[in-house]
Amino acid sequence: MNLHTLIKGLDIINRSKNEIADITVEGITDNSAEVKSGFLFLAIKGNDVDGHDFIEEAVRSGASVVIGEKDYTDISVPYIQIKNSRKVLGDISNIFYRDPSSKKIMIGITGTNGKTTTSYMLKYILEENGIPCSIIGTIENIINGKSVSSLNTTPNSLELHKLISSSKDEVIIIEVSSHGLIQYRLEGLQFDYCLFTNLDHDHLDFHGSIEEYFRAKSLLFGKMKPDGQAIINADDYWGEKLGELLKSQGKDTFLIGKSDQCSLKISEYHNMKFNLKENGESFKVHLPMPGFHNLFNTAMAYSTARMLNVSREHVLKALSKFPGVTGRFEVIEQINGSTVVIDYAHTADAIFHCLKTARDCGAKRIIHIFGFRGDRDASKREEMANISSELSDLFILTTDDLNSVSYDDMAMSLQELNEKYNNNGIVIPDRTLAIKQALEMAKKGDYIVITGKGHEQFQQPFSLPTHSDKDTISFINEQRNQKDI
Ligand SMILES: CC(=O)N[C@H]1[C@@H](OP(=O)(O)OP(=O)(O)OC[C@H]2O[C@@H](n3ccc(=O)[nH]c3=O)[C@H](O)[C@@H]2O)O[C@H](CO)[C@@H](O)[C@@H]1O[C@H](C)C(=O)N[C@@H](C)C(=O)N[C@H](CCC(=O)O)C(=O)O
Ligand SMILES: Nc1ncnc2c1ncn2[C@@H]1O[C@H](COP(=O)(O)OP(=O)(O)OP(=O)(O)O)[C@@H](O)[C@H]1O
Q: According to the UniProt entry, which residues carry N6-carboxylysine (predicted)?
């Protein structure tokens, strides 16, 4: 694509005198390692390193033009200085990939918890009804039926544009993180449906306050197409606020919740069944996954599918067959009659729902294994431990992803936290040994609930030669079987 076309709408601060008229841009990247001949390299000042330090490398690799924020003169190819590289990456990706979101039914789902679950439910309903869907989210990106595991919940704007333009699917479902919104990863995209699940204490190390976290999440709703539709969980405190805000801005806002003001009203939750009231008509829905929280995820997926013209009967039929989501209240029955649950809960609210669900499922005793991520919001740890100590019979504190924190430092933090609870819990820093201990303790009717990692692989090795919570359960069970033989 011609460089002029690409930079036409940009707010340019400065450009080097080199002639740019005839430059054809063969590709775009913000990663010097991916530059090929004729590429445009966009320098981003990142959290870890500064892309401007890689400009020379990019030029050596064949970049024919460079865009960046810094005043940079010592360069042999044209250099264009702009104000905000992350935003410009979205703007030019959108032009380069010819506005791909305008050609798709775009669904963005944001909120602290429930994005992945709602995405998979919705994808399942739509595909059961002949509407192919792409998913871009925490577990994986699925495009044209092919899955590739993902690094981020929301990839950067270049990757997003690439994925959408390569998709032949009619609908694109994107899990939208607050980091993604703040870092302009959604720049250039427009959405037909924007969903808000809930807001809970998380990522406050990054956002500073819950109000700022909310402000970040609400940025998604500024990206709706002119006839776009907001779908909001109004039972959530912040959801209610968002609903009011959007209505005051004249945006088409569909509320879900227990109050009479909601367009889809939820009531009478009992024994895996609940009531929905839509357009004055009430009907029963069988919950496709256990837990009160999944009622909201189900209602969100239900209403979005209905807006895409799938009949009620067909939505309910698909929901009744929904196979669940990896690492979200994933149940593994044990031979001795105890039950293991693997769940991705890593906020206090998610832990509350997960432990409450285990109890509702009939758990006699709950042994809860969990930890905390290194380098991530430490201010939520006490809240998580509070909930666990209230709702479980025994909690075992263990290691989650360490990131840059050392194993010993994390073990010490776990110990300190446990002391606050009069050493009522147990600290077993080795995650695999924590799971082994719980399996040995559990009797018929007990639930072992392991939260935090869900579908993910371990970031660091532990004593047992396993790579995930699920893998660890299988390994221990196999070892036990061999002993029995
Ligand atoms: C702290 C953070 O948010 N970092 C994200 C950010 O990285 P960054 O742009 O600051 O990257 P950087 O490594 O400093 O590099 C700066 C620039 O130099 C370039 N570079 C770098 C090295 C080199 O050799 N050459 C080169 O050109 C890089 O390509 C980049 O353009 O932008 C990248 C692209 O979008 C993200 O992959 C990366 O996510 C990291 C891996 C991460 O862990 N992020 C977490 C906090 C996150 O974003 N989480 C949310 C979900 C949260 C939740 O709800 O649970 C998510 O959406 O995943
Ligand atoms: N609507 C909800 N309200 C509260 N907790 C929920 C809800 N839905 C799911 N959870 C809990 O949060 C965990 C993560 O769910 P899910 O993966 O669907 O959320 P997510 O928003 O995609 O999370 P992440 O941003 O961390 O990827 C679940 O395993 C469950 O414990």
A: 217
In this structure, the answer to whether residues 251 and 370 fall within a common structural domain is no
Q: Quick check: 247 pLDDT over 70?
A: yes
Return the HEC string of 144-193: CCEEEECCCCCCCHHHHHHHHHHCCCCEEEEECCHHHHHCCCCCCCCEEE
Per residue in 300-315, pLDDT tens? 999 999 999 999 999 9
Three-state DSSP class for residue 476: helix
Beta-carbon neighbour count of residue 17 at 10 Å? Answer: 7
Tell me: do 213 and 354 sit in the same domain: no
Contact partners, residue 479, CB within 8 Å, separation at least 6: none
Within this chain, do residues 272 and 311 fall inside the same structural domain, yes or no?
A: yes
Centre of ligand 1 to C-alpha 47, Å, is 7
Q: Which of 479, 407, 393, 370 is nearest to 442 (CA)?
A: 393
- Nearest CA residue ID for atom 13, ligand 2: 345
- How many structural domains is the chain composed of? 3
Q: Same structural domain for residues 316 and 337? A: no
pLDDT at 21 exceeding the cut of 70: no
- Please report which ligand is nearest the Cα atom of 119: 2
Number of Cβ within 10 Å of residue 32's Cβ equals 20
